[in-house]
């Protein structure tokens, strides 16, 4: 297949891409499974509380069972007591959900194919800005008519581009290693360089 490639001079030309990667059908159940697994893997699950067996103290019965005129008590670490254990104490959890590499690559191919069909993928010959200034990147995005949430994908994150994009809350910068399905779905437009797109094609082929 052929897609539009915007050169540094502003003219458009054709960029050949593999149909096996960028012309796949939209598999919504698979994408949902992969996105759910990715979000679940990002959860820390580090909450933790102590139950009555984990808190210190409480080995001795506070008073005898009968004859005191008070309610029966076997330990001072009961959940009903101050400084006692938590009734249903939370424990650290692992929320990760396994997804096969073959499924993950298939979902990424499906997402990228749908982005091309929806004209949400903007391909640049190369992304160069004058300096590490936010206004330079804003002017570049304005030339490409990218005003909404934009994901910029490059083969490697340049220092100049990083400093120019870090103050823009609607702009996310990513390299090939950090590319994930959640970012691809959550952004209105995807700005990618031709070199990065070819590397993605090699990884997903």
Give structural notes.
- Helix content is 34%, strand content 13%.
- The protein is built from 7 helices and 6 strands, in the order ββαααβαβαβαβα.
- The chain has helices at 19-22, 28-41, 101-117, 134-143, 159-165, 181-186, 194-204; strands spanning 2-6, 12-16, 121-124, 150-153, 171-174, 189-193.
- The protein has a 4-stranded parallel sheet with strand order 3-6-4-5. It has a two-stranded antiparallel sheet with strand order 1-2.
- Helix 4 crosses helix 5 (159-165).
- The longest helix is centred in the middle third of the chain and has 17 residues, at 101-117.
- It is elongated and about 95 Å long.
- The model has no long low-confidence stretch (mean pLDDT 92).
How much helical structure, as a percent, in the residues?
A: 25-40%
Topology, number of strands? 6
Radius of gyration: 27 Å
The major sheet is characterized as:
4 strands, parallel
Please list the strands of the largest sheet in the order they lie side by side.
3-6-4-5
Q: For the residues shown, what is the average pLDDT?
A: 92
How much of the residues is beta strand, in percent?
5-15%
Helical stretch tally:
7
Elements, N to C (H/E):
EEHHHEHEHEHEH
Shape annotation: elongated
Structural class by sheet pairing and helices? alpha/beta
End-to-end Cα distance, whole Å, is 14 Å
Low-confidence stretches: none
């Amino acid at each position: 297949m052929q897609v539009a490639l915007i050169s540094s001079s502003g003219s458009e030309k054709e960029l050949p891409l593999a149909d096996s990667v960028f012309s796949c059908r939209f598999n919504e159940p698979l994408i949902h499974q992969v996105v759910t697994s990715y979000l679940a893997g990002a959860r820390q699950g580090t909450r933790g509380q102590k139950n009555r067996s984990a808190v210190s103290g409480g080995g001795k019965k506070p008073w005898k069972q009968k004859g005191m005129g008070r309610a029966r008590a076997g330990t001072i670490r009961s959940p009903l007591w101050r400084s006692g254990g938590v009734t249903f104490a939370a424990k650290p959890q692992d929320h990760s959900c396994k997804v096969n590499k073959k499924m993950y690559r298939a979902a990424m191919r499906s997402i990228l194919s749908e982005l091309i069909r929806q004209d949400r993928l903007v391909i640049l010959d190369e992304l160069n800005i004058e300096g590490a200034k936010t206004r330079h990147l804003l002017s570049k995005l304005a030339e490409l008519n990218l005003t909404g949430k934009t994901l910029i994908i490059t083969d490697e994150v340049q220092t100049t581009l990083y400093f120019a994009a870090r103050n823009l809350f609607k702009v996310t910068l990513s390299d090939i290693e950090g590319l994930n399905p959640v970012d691809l779905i959550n952004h209105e437009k995807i700005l990618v360089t031709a070199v990065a797109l070819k590397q993605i094609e090699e990884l997903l082929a």
